[in-house]
């Protein structure tokens, strides 16, 4: 089957996309993809195509590369956008450039649009080897997926089944010209070392090494897919509604997880944590065991990347952002309308008079006169209601000296007719 036919077959699921955007670096791989797509769209009713060239500004020839891309796209009649990015200082220039590049793609991808990138089979093999040497888990060893969500659209890699040699042969047969990034020859970069030193040595002993390694990545991706399905099944039994509907934080019931093997617990938690935090490495999972096995009256914490997993009773709660900081004591003179609490969401008071009431947080020693039950310590009331320990220091109170007149979101406990409706913070945006 010709290269054009294989590309078209890979693109069939996206034939009705609003647009195809080509990630065009000017190098060999993206040059072939651009020319193939330009040819296909002239011959068939396909989505409109355009190209995006990311100008990193890291090489002295970067401006000339952008000019080359403009000339090529002009000759093909393909609209081109040159996106200039700033690459952050980082220990890994490769990673920083990649992050800047994909951030540029993401912001430019519209609803229903598809970004087409030119990674191929040799790239897939390099990715698996690179991640293997870093001790990646199964998801990392599955290497690059053929498709994934990106911003408001989709990223598609239609050439993953094609070797670099075939792309180069096609380009030379068509008389194409492309730019060569001199950094691609530097062995200081790990991927280049694999590409120029390790993989050729493999191929000398095993000529089919690259297709075999790429095929293994496909098998690992399938296995990861099965584990993801198992995780969703396991999480379904733990994702019971929280008893505190107003506490809009990710949470799970602990008991269904305890019933699983250790490996299935980790698998389910990885699936649950993945959208929110950088997953812990293998050694760090001891923190999960400590949290899970702590005494019933303990308040264990598993500290993750810019987040914490807390246990309150038999439930797990994931906290980040404002929840990891102690809010300052409210300084509010007007108790009417919706009141913004610094670092602690918003509260609205209804039914309150103006008799020396103030907003505050628990300091210790507070008490309240329960309707029909007499005087009770606030701590005892919160225990009875099962309020999680991490909520208590920031739970808004309406106070008259040391007497609690109302407690946020617990109704009218004192019979005063006063209610506090509190909308807690939801984190820094990742957990909202």
From TrEMBL:
Subcellular location: Cytoplasm
CDD domains referenced in this protein's UniProt entry, alphabetically: TilS_N
Keywords: ATP-binding, Cytoplasm, Ligase, Nucleotide-binding, tRNA processing
Main location: cytoplasm
Record: residues binding ATP: 25-30
Entry coiled-coil feature ranges: none
Record-linked Pfam families: ATP_bind_3, TilS, TilS_C
Cytoplasm listed as a keyword: yes
Reaction(s) this enzyme catalyzes, per UniProt: cytidine(34) in tRNA(Ile2) + L-lysine + ATP = lysidine(34) in tRNA(Ile2) + AMP + diphosphate + H(+)
InterPro entries per record: Lysidine-tRNA-synth_C, Rossmann-like_a/b/a_fold, TilS/TtcA_N, tRNA_Ile_lys_synt, tRNA_Ile_lys_synt_N, tRNA_Ile_lys_synt_subst-bd
GO molecular function, one term: tRNA(Ile)-lysidine synthase activity
Ranges of residues in domain Lysidine-tRNA(Ile) synthetase C-terminal: 357-422
EC number: 6.3.4.19
Family, similarity comment: Belongs to the tRNA(Ile)-lysidine synthase family.
NCBIfam families assigned: lysidine_TilS_C, lysidine_TilS_N
Domain remark in the UniProt entry: The N-terminal region contains the highly conserved SGGXDS motif, predicted to be a P-loop motif involved in ATP binding.
Purpose: Ligates lysine onto the cytidine present at position 34 of the AUA codon-specific tRNA(Ile) that contains the anticodon CAU, in an ATP-dependent manner. Cytidine is converted to lysidine, thus changing the amino acid specificity of the tRNA from methionine to isoleucine.
Protein name (record): tRNA(Ile)-lysidine synthase
